[in-house]
Please model this.
Amino acid sequence: MISKKAAGIAPYTAGEQPRDKKYIKLNTNENPYPPCGKVVSALTGADISRLRLYPDPRSTGLREAAAAKFGLSPENIFCGNGSDEILAFCFQAFFDPFSKDVVFPDVTYSFYPVWCRLFDINYRTLPLKDDFSVDVSGYIAPAYCQGVVIANPNAPTGRALPLMDIERIVSGNPDKAVIVDEAYVDFGAETAIPLIKKYKNLVVVRTFSKSGSLAGMRIGFAAGDKELITALVKIKDSFNSYPVDSLAGAAAVAALSDGEYFDEHVNKVIRTREAFCAAITKAGFTYVPSSANFVFVTHKAVSAETLYRGLKENGVLVRWFDKPRISNYLRISIGTDEEMRICAEMLKKLAGQA
Ligand code: PMP
Model:
């Protein structure tokens, strides 16, 4: 009754979403600030009677708005129900099952290997350097490779690659798709979207969940050459014609229209991140330089597992991955100044007890 695939697959494990509000929640890289007023107006002013109709299957309004913002044509944009869904479509649209390897770092977003296994796509991981930076030379057209996936900034490390290095990977693989997952790019990295006009093999995947404060709406988009976008539409239309609901589409258009609110709150998160890094450094912690809305933190004397459990007992939820190379690190999302002050204090206490 249960397929071999469902019985055998090890799914992705998302961070906890506790139902009570007693935790300071720094475990899933959500934005601590609410969506902008324009989003609130778009949702509260929406004509609810129109929900009886299916939404636009091509999300034309959002594609036009995103294209205008990034100097592209709507034909270069594909919208989906969060970037996880878009990435899953990308794996099916650009990679063949039972074929050559898709290549990504050994430490990266742990959903990539799950999609490979789900879709029977072979993959190979290349080790990050000791400082968790990507060794770009390994990604230049290895014979065994059918495509590349790079999160920039990377997760869960937060470390970004300069645009020049992304371009080396894209130009070095001219006949293979290179997917750049820019979920966190607004917090300090350079977007590869301008390269889309130059390279036919690049697809950039973006989300409204982090810098856009819309994780609860599930909305994102991909930008790429028209031919890649057409392939994504074919996969979508073979799975679900209407992944983006009308309200999510309207909220995303409104979020894109308020650049001032966006810049202010992204900069606030960046400032809080820098203050938090300075505070924990004083308490003997080290961290990977972050261009994201989280920091990857370690302490030389106290294990990350002890810290994770200690924080949780005291009402602060962070993410700890019990995985090779990173089991002594915590990924701590950046919340408000007050939340991060409490978190830093608690880390200091926990480390002081060692
Ligand atoms: N890419 C990366 C690197 C992420 O960390 C996440 C969030 N878990 C996503 C994509 C997916 O985000 P969403 O589906 O909310 O757009």
User: Anything to note?
Assistant: The mean pLDDT is 97.
